[in-house]
Design brief:
Blueprint lengths: L1 E2 L1 H9 L1 H10 L5 E3 H18 L3 H12 L1 E3 L3 H16 L6 H13 L3 E3 L3 H8 L5 E3 L4
Parallel strand pairs: 1-4, 2-3, 4-5
Helix pairs in contact: 1-2, 3-4, 5-6
């Protein structure tokens, strides 16, 4: 099971959401290298603009405790296919979401997210397993 950036940020912000996720998840949770990048760039921006290390420390601690799946040549092939299929349908999605999806597909892992854009990817790549959680 892979969490995307939207889930990780929600867990970091909301203890109740974290408790709810612990009840749902019964296996090892992983993130992608793309999610790691998105988390780190935000923490570094906060460090530079607000002169605060708190976010960076939290993200670095998280990254030291969780498996991070890489984006490699097979994932780039899958991502390129997804991008082309979406483009053919006139659908535009950010590259990060396409890359995250390709890592999940390559690893044969389910993605857990709050982001509905991943439904569009599911529409062009049948083997993509995604669960989009609703926030209450």
């Amino acid at each position: 099971m892979i969490f995307d950036t939207s889930i990780v940020l929600q867990i970091l912000k909301n203890r109740d959401f974290y408790r709810d996720m612990r009840e749902i998840v019964d296996e090892d949770v992983k993130i992608t290298s793309i999610t790691a990048y998105e988390l780190l760039r935000g923490a570094i921006f906060v460090r530079l603009t607000r002169h605060s290390d708190r976010e960076m420390n939290v993200i670095m601690s998280l990254l030291s405790e969780i498996s991070v799946l890489p984006f490699g040549s097979e994932e780039s092939r899958i991502a390129s296919y997804i991008w082309a299929m979406l483009k053919e349908k006139g659908v535009s999605i950010n590259d990060a979401d396409i890359m995250i999806s390709s890592i999940c597909i390559g690893a044969k892992e389910k993605l857990i997210t709050l982001d509905r854009d991943f439904e569009k990817i599911k529409g062009v790549y049948e083997g993509f397993e995604v669960e989009i959680l609703e926030m209450s």
